[in-house]
What does this fold into?
Amino acid sequence: MDTTTYGLETLTSRFSDPQRLVPELGDVSTALFKIIGNGAVPRSTITLIHLRAGQLVGNTYLTVMHTANARRAGVPEDKLAAVASWKDAPYFTVAERVALEVVEAVLTPAGHGERVPDDLYARAAEHYDDKALATLAMAIGQVNFFIPLALIGKPLPGVSMAEQWRTATTG
It folds into this structure.
């Protein structure tokens, strides 16, 4: 059995810090964080949908980062461990379940019909008012905004913000 692992010290990202490359990114990031931090949707729910998004796109960086964010938001370990299998896990509230269902609907191509059908929207509206629904949509949009940077740029998972954009030339 091959037990070789790649240590983080040898990994590099594909490009350097995108905020240094495109300084305007800071303004966009700040605005997005302000929007989702408006209190309309609990921070723990935001972190759960961000974590699920990272899982859905198959990106370790996003999954590790959003798991850490969820821990900081007070999400219990059993709930974190069950995000990928939330549909049959007993740990989630009905409101969290519908939020997870919405992020999956947005990020998963529909076989037919709308990605977010009227019945899903209606169930979400039972738990979230208009401001919260708009915030939920923006929280999904926020993670979607950063998905290309994670997939293309390949920041390093589980390291400090200062180290995640370490290229071969910046090593």
Remarks:
- The mean pLDDT is 91.
